[in-house]
Design goal:
By secondary structure, the chain is of the alpha+beta class. The chain is 62% helix and 9% strand.
Amino acid sequence: MEKAPIHFDLIEIIKIGLRWKNKIILFAAIITIGTAIYALTLKNQFTSYANFYPSNAVIGSRDNLFRTELQDGIDQFGLENEVDRLFSIGNSAPIMSPLIEKYKLDEHYKIDIKNNTKGAQKLYKLFDKNYQVSKGAFGNLELTMTDNNTTLAAAIANDALIAIQDKFREYYINSAKGIAEAMGVRMQYQDSMIVKLTDSLVCLREKFGIYEIISPSRKGDVHTNSHNARGIEDVQTVEEMKDKYVMDKAKYESIRNEFLTIQHKSIPFIQVIQYPEPSGKKEGPFRTLMVLGALAGSTILGLLASVLIEYFQSIKSNFTARNEQHP
C-alpha cells in the first residue's frame, strides 16, 4: 500500500518534529554542550582604540613659520590628502614589522617562524587581522588593536601611533634635510670664494694704495682719492664680486636655518583625540550568543534532517509498493 505523499506545510512539519523530538533534542543537546565547552576554552578578546587627525602640513611649513606678511587663519587639521597619506602609512609594512619584532608576537601567537616556511606569512596575516588603521566618517583616522591581553594591545596601539607620526614627519623632514644639506655644500664653495676674493682684494689695495670702499652695491657715494684708473677698476670689480658672495651666503644661511628649524620634532604632525587605553571594549567571544545560536541552529538542522528522512522514506515506500503491484 502506498503512503500518502508528505505535504510540506507547517502542520506536517510540526507532526514530524513531534515524532522525532527525542532524537532532535539529543542532537541539539550534543551540539549545544560541545559549543559551550569550546566557548569556555576561548580567551576574551579586547580592542584598544585610538582616534586621531592629521595636522595641517602648512602649519609647520617654511612659508608659514617665516612669513613676512600677515596671513589668514590656517585650519589646525589636515585635509583629505593628509588622511590618505596617513592611512597608507599606518597600514604599511614599515609600521607593522617593527611592532611584530618588538613585542615578539610570533611567541605571543605561538607561531613558529624559524622552522615553518609559511610561519612569517601566517604571523603577518594574523597581526593584520588584529591591527587596523581605518578612515573615520569625519575626516579622522581610527586605529584599533585587538588581543586577549589588554595591556599588550594598548602598548602596541600607542607605539603604532608614535610610529605613524614619525614616519609621516620623516617624509617632510627628509625633503627639508636634503635641501639644507645642498645649501650647506653651496655655502662651503661660497666661503672658499670669499677667502680667495678677500686675499685678492687685499693685494690690490696694497698694490694701488686704494683703501676706500668703492663697491657700487654699497650704500652711499662711491669715491676715492686715487687717480690710478686701472687700480680703481680692479679693486671695484673684486670688491663687488666679494660683496655679492657675502650677501648670497647670508641669504643661503638664513634659508638653511629655516629648513633646519622645520625638522624639529616638537612640530606635531597628528592631532590625537583619544589615546589607546588598556581598558578596551570586549571584542569577543560572546559565549551566551554562541550557545544560543548553537541550540537554535542544531534544532533547526535536526528538524530539517527528520523532514528529509521521512520524505525519502515516503518516496522509497511508494516506489516499493508500485513494484509489488506491477511485477
